[in-house]
Structures are given as structure tokens and as C-alpha cells.
């Protein structure tokens, strides 16, 4: 049992977002930090440090055009030299003035064409560097009743998704992310897992749903969505983060570690932790006031802790209690695992992997922060307004 748990923890993979390393903030203020990356290459350098100290974060997701470069193969080669690889390509059809009334659901066909062309470009970039996943999130929606036809917008969305899907290579996937609201406040064109699921189902097996943990109404039972989509073979990925109010993009496991455990319990129960299950575990976070590299390391550790606890659930005892209708017993099995201090186990797993058992401390002692603060002047904003 313990060796199987350790092996699963060693094999776990968590993808980092390039945008977590740049400056970020709210619409009120972006706080600049010293030493933040000025180029996609420097974001990859920082991501490689997170992997160096955790051993389980070997890929970095890109956001286009935030991470636009002339030669993506060169960026991929640079990442490889640092011991990491490029990950999911995230499309961005939410930042141009043209998208004020929507991107792929805009009433203007010229704007829709521009947006779809960008999605196709993202598929092509992924193809060039051998990346499997292209992730789509649309800020599209309306602010006022009557502003546009809800149904017509669904038709336009379906058309855009189909054209993008048709461009995918055999081994590529389209990941569709939903979000309850923001920036649109009345209707959102992909507001929930049901809408995302219905579109993905029509598209076919290469279309999968992304669950961003911050994209639900307060109180939503996210692990139910996880269980349902897994059962249907339609859970493609997570964007992990945590929230107290809306889409806060705080460190995963910071606001509600118990929720993260419940999610990972569903994953482990469905044997979906292993890479072959096709669920990508990604972070989608912004570190507005905390230092970014240690915050990413902490986030990876939080996912590892929730995973370790989920792996420790005594499945036989749980099934036994469930089948016997032993409500308290079943709940106790789950809570026993959740209340286990898994930090010594993870420290051991890190030692087995040749890593320092204390990744944040090891990073802080490494001198990397001092090096980037001295060497980088004028770091880039993570995204919003960039
Ligand atoms: C939208 O809120 C979102 O979660 C999408 O994943 C975007 O690509 C990302 O945030 C940008 O930070
Ligand atoms: Mn997201
Ligand atoms: Mn979000």
C-alpha cells in the first residue's frame, strides 16, 4: 500500500502557468515585484526552478499572445535545456477592443473571423511544438437583458468550436473551460459544466471539459462535477486555484484544503491520477502580493498534500461501510485520511527523488531570487492589461 502511494506521488504531474510568474493584480492596482520575468524565456526559467525543487512540475503552459515569440521551437528547446517542457497552449480572445461584444459569439462576423483565426493559430502553435492540449476560455456574454440573442450566440459558439476542432491533429485535444460570470455580468456563453459538456459531446472525443475551481457559484459541489465528468470520459483538465469570493486565483488549497481533498478523492477513486487517464492537472493562479516562485512551489505542495491524503483513503473499508449503509463509518474513513499529517510522507518521497524535503526553504536558500532581482529590470505584467 505505502509503496503504491509513494509511486503515485512520484509520478504525479502538475502544470504551471507562465502568467503566474509575471506581475498581476486587480482592476484597482497591479503591484510590481522586483525580478519578475521580462520575456517568455524568463518565465520558463522561473517555472524550471519550481520543477527543480518539487520534481513534479515539468511543463509550463503558455498564453498566446502574452507569450508570443517568433520561434516556438526555440522556446521549446530552451525549456528542454532547463529540464522542462512547454505545456497547454491557452488562447486569448478577450483582450482586444474588437472583443467588447464578444469574440466567437460576437454579432459581427468580421470579429468572429478574427477570433477563430486566433484559435486556429493556437492549434498550429501546439502542433509545431508537439503539445497535446489547446485550452479555450471565452469571456463572451452580455451585460443586459435583450442585448443579444442567447440562442444565436450558442450557434456562433458551436460553429467556432467546430472549426477549431476540425483543425486538431490526431493526438491533440480541445479543452473547453467554463466560468459562471465575469467579465460578462448578465449572460455568459459558456457559464457552466453542462454547457461545456454539451458542446464537447457534440464535437467528439478530442473535446474535453476543463474545471477551473474558481469558476463556480459559492457552495457548488465541485467534486460532484468531477465525478460526473470522469464517468462520462469528458474531464480533460483542471485549472487549480482557490477562492474566497469569486475568481480570486489564489493559491490552490489556501482557501479550502478540504474541498481540494474531496476533488482528489474523486480522482483517485476513478483511477484518474495516472497520466494515461488523460486528466491534466494545471495551476491557474496569480500572485498579486506574494512572491511568485515560492507561491508556485507552495501551490504544487498543496496539491501533493491533498493527493497524498486521497491516496491514503482505505478504499476497502470505505466500500465496506458504504455497502453496509454505515453512514458514520464511511464518513470516518474519509476523515481519517484527511486528518492524516502527510508532510513526513511527502518529505520522504522527495528524498527518494533526490530532492530537498523542504522545497520552499531550499528555493529560498538557492540564491535565485537575489539573482533575478539583480539581473532583471522592468518585469512584465502577467496578463490583464498587458
Ligand atoms: C479566466 O478567468 C481564466 O481562468 C482562463 O483560464 C484564462 O485563460 C485565465 O483565467 C487567465 O488568467
Ligand atoms: Mn482558468
Ligand atoms: Mn479564472
The unreliable regions are none
Shape: globular
Percentage of β-strand residues: 5-15%
Structural class: alpha/beta
Observed structural traits:
386 residues, alpha/beta, TIM Barrel, eight-stranded parallel β-sheet, two-stranded antiparallel sheet, 14 helices, 10 strands, binds alpha-D-psicofuranose, binds manganese (II) ion
Please explain how this structure is put together.
The protein is of the alpha/beta class and 386 residues long. The protein has one domain (2-375): Divalent-metal-dependent TIM barrel enzymes (TIM Barrel). The protein has 14 helices and ten strands. Strand 9 (235-240), helix 8 and strand 10 form a beta-alpha-beta unit. It starts with a helix and ends in an 11-residue tail after the last helix. 46% of the residues are buried. The mean pLDDT is 97. The structure holds alpha-D-psicofuranose (PSV) and manganese (II) ion (MN) (2 copies). Alpha-D-psicofuranose is lined by residues 19, 90, 137, 177, 179, 212, 239, 247, 284, 383.
List the helices and strands and how they pair.
Layout: H1 2-11, E1 16-17, H2 40-54, E2 59-64, H3 72-81, E3 85-91, H4 109-128, E4 133-137, E5 141-142, H5 150-167, E6 173-177, E7 187-188, H6 193-203, E8 207-212, H7 222-231, E9 235-240, H8 257-269, E10 280-283, H9 292-311, H10 315-323, H11 327-338, H12 343-352, H13 359-365, H14 368-375
Parallel strand pairs: 1-2, 2-3, 3-4, 4-6, 6-8, 8-9, 9-10
Antiparallel strand pairs: 5-7
Helix pairs in contact: 1-9, 2-9, 2-13, 4-5, 7-8, 8-9, 9-13, 10-11
